[in-house]
Model the fold of this input.
Amino acid sequence: MQKQNSLHISIKSFGYHRSGVPKEDDAHGGGYIFDCRGLPNPGRSIEYQFLTGQDDRVIRYLESFPQVEQFYQHTLALVKQHADAFAERGFEKMSVAYGCTGGQHRSVYFSERLASDLKTLGYHVSLDHVDKP
Done:
């Protein structure tokens, strides 16, 4: 069910050691940047080196750690609360970015998941993986 508003949520994944924090494209701006580097890193294992946060093996690895789910639920709650307030006030744009070391595993996983959940909630969402190979 599509929300009756024009709020567009731009979601990005990035690597702190590659592109750095993405610049906001909009004069209004507003949103969040979440740092995933405190979570288990699949990129440290050779078996995940050439995979991304969209691959089932990486997803299973990340989801095997309770702190990953806890982190996600916290970020989802913050973003949803913020998005609902922006939509109610008639704002048109909001941004969310997840960063990890290289922008390939954790940040991609979280941004994909958030985009899917927000679309399910009826928000207009765009997704950009800035550093994904």
